[in-house]
Amino acid sequence: MKAVYSTTYIPMSSAEIELFLLDLVDVIADALRAEPFTAKPVAVVGDRMVAAHFTGMETLQRTVEVLGRALLFTPELRGVDRLAEKVVAVLGALGARFATAMRLDAFRQQEEIKSALLQAKQGVERVLRVSEARFREVFDSSVMGIAITEPDGTVVEANEAMNAILGSERSLIGRSLPRHFHPDDAEVLTASYRSVREGVVDRFREQRRLVRIDGEPAWVYLAVSVLRDADGEPAFHVTMVEDVSELHLMQKNLDSLLLRDPLTGLSNRQHFVTQLETVHSRSEHGITLYHLDLDSFSLINNGLGHDTGDRLLKQTASRLRAVVADQDAFVARIGGDEFAVVVDNSPTTPGVPTMIDKINDELAEPTFVDDRGIAVTATIGVLDRPSPEWTVGQLLRAANMTLTLAKAKGKRQWLPYDPHEDARQRAAARVTAALPGAFENGELEVDFHPVVGLADRTVVGVSARLRWGSLGHRQCLAMADETGLSLPVGQWMLRYAAERVVLWREATGVTPLPLHVALSPMQSRDEDLVGAVKRTLDETGLPVGDLRISLHTRAVLIGGSDDNVQVLTDSGIPTGLNDFHGGQDELALLTELPIHSLTIAPATVRALADRTARNPLAHNAMASLVAVVRQAGVSVTAAGVTTDAEADWWAGIGTDAAQGDFYTASRTTGPLAALFQDRP
Amino acid sequence: MELANWVPDDVDTGLPSAARLYDYLLGGGHNFAGDRALGEQFLKAQPNARAIARLNRAFLRRAVLFMIDNGIRQFLDLGSGIPTVGNVHEVARRAAPESRVVYVDFEDIAVAHSRMMLADDPLATIVQQDLTEPEVVLEAALGTGLVDRAEPLGVLAVGVFHFVPPERHPEAVVAAYRDAVVPGSHLALSQFTADLQPVEMAGIVEVMKKSMNPMFPRTLAEITGLFAGFDVVEPGVVPLPLWRPEGLSDDDPAKAGILGGVGRKR
User: Fold this and answer.
1) CA of B8 vs chain A CAs: smallest distance (Å)
2) Which of A586-600, A609-623, A637-651, B241-255 has the lowest mean pLDDT?
3) What residues in A contact B32, CB-CB < 8 Å?
4) Does B3 have pLDDT greater than 60?
5) Closest Cα in chain A, distance from residue B161 (Å)
């Protein structure tokens, strides 16, 4: 057993091997003993030896040696006839069969290993096929154009996206990629490809232009790398192309976005200023600037919605463009509902009135929104052929000022620039601008004017009024409102007046006269009004019943002052309305709020005085109004009465009191004069 | 061997493989001319190579049966090579039919061959991984569903670590397997050494440089060191004929070429 065992590896224990071999020996012995003799049964021994892996190189030789000796001399077979002959036959059969089985086994194993090899290769191939399929998928479905080119630029592979970028219907394979380089970029691109090919850089990524099949340039990002063969030699270029033409267009558009109004496509204000400067400085025959403001546009936006508003703005833009289409002109949107038209005049340019008519006619054409025709009107300030010396700032200011004046006239108005009006406005503006400084320097003063009872022409009250040099109370208040100073100015005036009145009373011991203070619109809306008034009364010692405050009628109408009226009244301060014109809406306030008195506006008083002879209707109306108001328990004062005759008329219709130049401070005597004539 | 031109180059049959050389030395037919030519050179360098191969295979068998006796029912055979005779699952099953085996090899043909053999076997399979990446191997093995992490594992590294170069840190590789298995798990490891026959070993190293599997013999101390964290069972790390022999053997331990042993994780 040892003889065969050591020649090969048999996966059995020694005991197992011994049993196995003894079994085989039995088969052989049986065959030798059998009559008639045949060697055939021994063949199976060869099969079983090979199957059990007794297949060492020397196994057969050793088997024959061992068996030959053992079989011939074993006592068990001693009686067998012609034993030697039979043993030779048996060993021969065993050998033959062993050899055959070995050969078959070798074939089987070779088949197996080849099959394994095949499978391994197929496995590798499958992996390759999968990776190829993956590559295909990426290649085909990529939104990036991909082209694989030979070092000379000939395309060997290109995907659909690449075709699309170059606008090619046919495959690019076989074409030259460098032929699609933009002439301006060809040189630098060729150099970049070379540096990748030569390994100077691994890849490059640049924004360049390619030329499409139709000759149009395409802006692209190119990412280019190189594929090397097994020897490291450059075999192919891989060019990835991202079409950024749109991006590029957007970049270009960005500039115009900054210059254009996105809704109408017109120049925006910034661009308008630049354009205006250019045209103005180059103009031969001078320019004309139309500054338009759409009338009541907020009503359209609020009432019909911003979509409708936007449509009308677009419509207006295109119509204005149409008006100046055949002229050297441009249109801009320079504010929410403001447009500008600048015409560079030529000898044939229509005059301003013609142009205004054309603009008005165009705008009058209704735009239909939900079957409803809507037309806009515009108010226009016109600056015609301003001096070439003027700066853009001056042009804009002058046009704006003219527009503001035109708007004051109403809707669908236009005005040419008026240098005198301009000068006046500018002077007023300068004065207004100086008010804060004047207030700071104590240049504002408080004058006292008598409030005269019309029944017997006696002084029934003291009205405190602001004065700054030659500017009177109303102008001072208007400027204070404009500069945002009205609250501190108002508080200062109230305190000053109260202190003076208290001092005056103490000095003269006269019957107390109530102090009248008329507030501006902004002062009327002051949320801290009641608090400020109470503090003043506390600190000055003026009795609460001796103060009469009147709020501005318009301010109360607009709202925001209702609380002030109510709380002042609740605090024991009789509260009235000033600047009352007599409108229905104003009258309605009397029923809504605890109004103690009202003061007819000087403008209304003046208007009635001017028309005394001509307009009985207005006078009758005022008479009825005064009667009705007084019936309601509200006292009425007329402000700005200038003559005794006027005063008489007001007295005649039952008016309680009047203020104005008809009763000048100089008419006062005694202790009153001390207050009214006191001018430091 | 002439390859049809559709065969991709990635499966390299031109370079002999240790797995097929081993098969040849064991008297198998799963080899190519290149393997057999290398085998002849191997035999010239180490005339006892066939016996050494047989001894190594026999050691594998005895080690598996030893582990079965110690309750191991799941095996991870690292570097299993060509399935020739006396494969782990066959040996294990004769003693414990429920044994599960995951073979691990990296070489395409060995893996393909093993797959063919194990195609219909529910309790044995092969994963194609590099045994020097224990985390990957273990994950793949767990992924087969045949290995239970909570159960002691028989890790077999028989005749394979002499292919792991020093720069792959064989001690760290073994340690990673050790750390991943539960106590009671076993490691059987055998590998070539130059301690016994330095001249022949040097010859083998030269020969194997021409294969895809160069060899790195290790000293007894180095091999014993690979068992760090394991209690090495009797008789320790020894020439293979001396490891728990089954009765008669006239193999000379001094010419056995390979040292091996079995350890039990503490």
Assistant:
1) 7
2) A609-623
3) 113
4) no
5) 21
Q: Chain A: give the shortest CA distance to residue B26, in Å.
A: 6
What pLDDT does B225 receive? 95
Give chain B positions within 8 Å (CB) of A14.
246-248
Nearest-by-CA chain B residue for A1: B248
Which own/partner pairs from B59-62 qualify as long-range (CB within 8 Å, at least 24 positions apart)?
A: B59/B158, B59/B188, B59/B190, B59/B240, B59/B243, B59/B258, B59/B260, B60/B86, B60/B88, B60/B91, B60/B156, B60/B158, B60/B159, B60/B188, B60/B190, B61/A11, B61/B86, B61/B91, B62/B243, B62/B244, B62/B246
Q: Is A230 on the interface with B (CB under 8 A)?
A: no
Q: pLDDT digit string (tens) for A624-660? A: 889 989 998 999 999 989 888 889 999 999 999 999 8
Chain A residues touching residue B10 (CB < 8 angstroms): 121, 124, 128
Report B:22-61 residues touching A (Cβ under 8 A).
26-32, 50-51, 53-54, 57-58, 61
Domain ranges of chain A: 2-112, 142-249, 262-417, 440-676
Regarding predicted confidence, which is higher, A531 or A230?
A531
Check if A472 contacts B (Cβ < 8 Å).
no
pLDDT at residue number A250: 66
- Predicted complex ipTM exceeds 0.85: no
Asked if the Cβ–Cβ distance from B112 to A2 is below 8 Å, we say no
Burial environment of residue A258 by CB neighbours within 10 A (0 to 12, 13 to 18, 19 or more):
exposed
Q: Which of A385, A288, A293, A390 is nearest to A329 (CA)?
A: A288
The CATH classification number of A142-249 equals 3.30.450.20
**Regarding predicted confidence, which is higher, B260 or A16?**
B260
A14 touches chain B (CB under 8 A): yes
Strand A372-374 and strand A338-344: the pairing is unpaired
User: CATH homologous superfamily of domain A262-417?
Assistant: Reverse transcriptase/Diguanylate cyclase domain (3.30.70.270)
Shortest distance, CA A125 to any CA of chain B (angstroms): 7
A104 touches B at CB < 8 Å: no
Are A668 and A450 contacting, i.e. CB atoms less than 8 angstroms apart?
Answer: yes
Task: Give CA–CA dist A144/A243, Å, rounded.
Answer: 8
Closest-CA distance, A122 to chain B, in angstroms, reads 8
Q: Which two tokens stand for residue A372?
A: 């409803």
User: B147 touching A, CB under 8 A?
Assistant: no
Task: Please give the mean pLDDT across all residues of chain A.
Answer: 85
Is residue A56 less than 8 Å (CB to CB) from chain B?
A: yes
| Distance in Å, alpha carbon of A50 to nearest chain B alpha carbon | 11
User: What band does A3 get if pLDDT is binned at 50, 70 and 90?
Assistant: low
CATH 3.50.50.60 for the B59-195+219-265 domain, yes or no: no
Q: Which of A75-84, A204-213, B40-49 shows the lowest mean pLDDT across its residues?
A: A75-84
- Burial class from Cβ neighbours inside 10 Å (0-12, 13-18, 19+) for residue B76 reads buried
Does domain A440-676 match CATH 3.30.540.10? no
Nearest residue of B to residue A58 by CA position?
A: B27
pLDDT for A344 equals 93
What is the band of A133 on the pLDDT scale with cuts at 50, 70, 90? confident
- Rounded CA-CA distance B123/B109 in Å is 21
8 A C-beta contact, residue A377 and residue A364: yes
| CB pair distance less than 8 Å for A6 and B251 | yes
Please check the confidence at residue B5 and state whether its pLDDT lies above 80.
no
- Say if residue B232's pLDDT is above 70: yes
Interface membership of B89 toward A (CB under 8 Å): no
Task: Domain ranges for chain B, please list them.
Answer: 59-195+219-265
Distance CA A280, CA A277 (A): 5
In this complex, which of B11, B116, B246 lies closest to A121 when CB atoms are compared? Answer: B11
